[in-house]
Amino acid sequence: MTRLTVNNEAVEYLLDPATPLLFALRDASNLTGAKYGCGTGSCGACTIDVDGRAVRSCQLTLAQAEGAFVTTIEGLSRERAHPVQLALIADNVPQCGFCVPGIVMAAAALLKRDASPSEEAIRQGITNLCRCGIYPRLAESIARAGRAMRGDETIPAGARPGIDPADAAARVPALSPR
Predict the structure, then answer these.
(1) How many CA atoms lie within 13 A of 167 on its CB side?
(2) pLDDT tens, 129-146?
(3) Which domains does the chain have, with CATH numbers?
(4) What is the pLDDT of residues 83-95, one digit of tens each?
(5) Closest to 130 measured CA to CA, from 35, 33, 43, 38
(6) DSSP the chain
(7) Whether 11 contacts 3, CB under 8 Å
(8) Rounded to 10 degrees, what is the CA torsion of 149, 152, 153, 157?
(9) How far is CA 7 from its chain centroid?
């Protein structure tokens, strides 16, 4: 049994300690924001925050994570209001979105350590792969998030996408079987 804190909640996993943390998060905790991409730690789609560091969760076993404080994209900001999320959305950076949770987590960890990173520090700190090629806009968007974290810029919260469920669906009588 492995104990750790995930998104500020104590969790005890009853899985084999050799299980990659990615699979424990996705399958046992239903936290599906971290994606399985390559399984080798190369792509970064599975990046999460472990004790303040951006970590590729496909490469970290439950045993290695024992006692750690883990934050996933779901725990970063349920309202999608973290400065990195707001900046990426306001700058229209995401395309297909598969890699974005990992990039957001890597950027949030970088900005937690240094809210004024140079462009070179951003490029070295964000090694995630994106098949859509968002890189030209990514560095500036992360720098913008840093400015917001320092209080030097405000990113409009209205830039967040989303549909109010009340506007998207209505309860109707059930259909009868044919």
Answers:
(1) 3
(2) 999 999 889 999 999 999
(3) 2-76 (3.10.20.30), 83-153 (1.10.150.120)
(4) 999 999 999 999 9
(5) 43
(6) -EEEEETTEEEEE-S-TTSBHHHIIIIIS---SS--S-SSSSS-TTEEEETTEEEEGGG-BHHHHTT-EEE-HHHH-TTS-SHHHHHHHHTT--SS-SSHHHHHHHHHHHHHH-SS--HHHHHHH-----TT--HHHHHHHHHHHHHHHHTS----GGG-----HHHH----PPPPP-
(7) yes
(8) 40
(9) 12
- State the amino acid at position 98 in one-letter form: F
Q: What percent of the chain has pLDDT over 70?
A: 93
The whole-angstrom separation of Cα 132 and Cα 46 is 17
Record the tokens describing residue 67, joined without a space.
Answer: 């006692």
Contact present, 95 and 86 (Cβ < 8 Å): no
- For the cut 90, the answer to whether the pLDDT of residue 161 exceeds it is no
